[in-house]
Design brief:
Layout: E1 2-11, E2 15-18, H1 39-50, E3 54-57, H2 64-79, E4 88-92, H3 111-119, E5 127-131, H4 137-151, E6 156-164, E7 181-191, E8 196-204, E9 213-217, E10 228-232, H5 234-256, E11 263-268, H6 273-285, H7 300-303, H8 310-319, E12 333-340, E13 344-351
Helix pairs in contact: 2-3, 5-6
Length: 352
C-alpha cells in the first residue's frame, strides 16, 4: 500500500511586502550597535543571498488558523471529498495563533481543533492535533498520515502547514526580512495505483544543533527583554543543511529503488535560495551528476520563507501551472525535502 496526496490547497496572503519597505528600518547588530553602512547595502546583500524580493504578510484580522482553514477548504474541494470522512487533522506550525499587534502565542484549543471547528466537521472520531517540528512540519505530518493509513488507523487525513512568522520577528534584526506568512493543506489517502509515497527519511539532531533556532530578546536594548522573537545562527544552519540534507535525500532515493535520473522535480523548503541551490549541487554530486535544468521550482523570490507552508504551497503552485517555466506530468518522480528548527530533517520520494 502507498499513500498519495489526493488534494492540495494553499492560502497566499494579499499583503505584499517588498524589500524596499525595509528601507527605513533601524537594523542593529546583536549587541545593539548600529550598522556601519546604509540599509540599501543591507537589503542588496540580503537579496543576493536569499533571492527574496517580496514576501507576504497575513491580513491584520487573520490568524494562522484562519489561513489554514482557507487552505484546507481548497484541499478538500480539490480532492472532491466529504470532510466528514477525514479521520485525522494534523496541523504543523511553530508559534500558534499570534494576533496582529501582540506577542503572545495562543494554542488553546489546538489550531487543528480550530480548523475542525471552522470546517464544521461533526464526526467526533475525526481526531485533531498539532505538531511542532520546525519548518519540516508539513512533511512530517504527511509521514504521520502515512503511518496511520498503513496501520489501518485511518483512511484519510488532512495535513496542514500554516504560519504567521511576521508576528514573531524582531524588526531590528535583518533576518526578519526572510520570514513571511502563508498556509498549505493536503488530503492524504491510500493510493490504488503506482502513484504516491515511495520512501522517506526523518531525523532530529539535538546535541550541538538543538538551539540553532531559538527565541531571544530584541537587538534593541530599549525594548522589553522579556518579549522574545525568533532568532537563528544563520551560518550554523547553512553548514548543517549542506552537510546533512543531501545525504538524507540520497538515502531516501536509494531506499525507493529508483535512480537519480528518474527524478524530475525536487521541492525543497524555501528557506534561502543560495542554500537550496548548494544543497541540490551537493546532492547531485553524490551521484557524480550535474544538476539538470529546471529541476528545482522556487517560490521564495515572491513569497519568502513561510516555514511549514513553503513546501505544500510550492506543490500547489507547481501542479496549477503557476510557476514560470515549470510543469509536472503524471508519473513523474519528485523529492520533497525540508530542514529546520530542532534541528530536523526529512524527505520523501513521491510519484505524481
Amino acid at each position: 500500500m502507498k499513500i498519495k496526496i489526493a488534494g492540495i490547497g494553499s492560502y497566499i496572503p494579499e499583503k505584499k511586502i517588498s524589500n524596499t519597505d525595509f528601507g527605513e528600518h533601524v537594523f542593529l547588530n546583536e549587541d545593539g550597535t548600529a550598522f556601519g553602512y546604509p540599509n540599501e547595502v543591507v537589503i542588496n546583500k540580503f537579496k543576493g543571498i536569499t533571492g527574496i524580493e517580496h514576501r507576504r504578510y497575513a491580513e491584520d484580522h487573520l490568524n494562522s488558523s484562519d489561513l489554514a482553514f482557507s487552505a484546507a477548504q481548497k484541499a478538500i474541494k480539490n480532492a472532491e471529498i466529504d470532510p466528514e470522512t477525514i479521520d485525522y487533522i494534523i496541523f504543523a506550525h511553530n508559534f500558534g495563533d499570534v494576533k496582529y499587534g501582540t506577542s503572545q502565542s495562543d494554542m488553546l484549543p489546538s489550531l487543528a481543533t480550530r480548523v475542525k471547528h471552522k470546517l464544521q466537521i461533526k464526526n467526533p472520531k475525526c481526531v485533531a492535533y498539532d505538531i511542532l517540528f520546525g519548518c519540516p512540519g508539513w512533511i512530517e505530518g504527511v509521514l504521520q498520515a502515512n503511518a496511520y493509513i498503513k496501520s489501518g488507523m485511518a483512511k484519510r487525513c488532512l495535513v496542514i502547514g500554516s504560519e504567521t512568522l511576521s508576528r514573531v520577528v524582531d524588526a531590528h534584526d535583518r533576518d526578519s526580512m526572510i520570514y513571511s506568512d502563508g498556509a498549505g493543506a493536503s488530503i492524504i489517502e491510500a493510493s490504488d495505483d503506482n502513484t504516491g509515497l515511495l520512501a522517506y527519511e526523518s531525523a532530529t539532531y539535538a546535541n550541538d544543533e538543538a538551539n540553532y533556532l531559538f527565541f531571544g530578546k530584541s537587538y534593541n536594548p530599549d525594548l522589553d527583554p522579556d518579549i522574545r522573537y525568533i532568532k537563528m545562527y544563520g551560518r550554523k544552519i547553512y553548514e548543517f543543511a549542506l552537510n546533512h540534507v543531501p545525504a538524507a535525500m540520497k538515502s531516501c532515493l536509494d531506499k525507493s529503488g529508483l535512480g537519480i535520473d528518474d527524478v524530475k522535480k525536487i521541492l525543497i523548503h524555501q528557506a534561502n535560495e543560495k542554500m537550496d541551490e548548494a544543497i541540490i549541487q551537493r546532492f547531485y554530486k553524490l551521484y557524480d551528476r550535474t544538476v539538470p535544468k529546471d529541476i528545482m521550482p522556487m517560490s521564495i523570490h515572491e513569497l519568502g520563507n513561510s516555514s511549514v507552508a513553503t513546501v505544500p504551497t510550492l506543490f500547489d503552485l507547481l501542479i496549477r501551472g503557476k510557476i514560470e517555466n515549470q510543469e509536472i506530468h503524471k508519473g513523474d518522480v519528485m523529492i520533497f525535502a525540508s530542514v529546520g528548527a530542532g534541528m530536523n530533517i526529512n524527505a520523501f520520494i513521491y510519484r505524481y
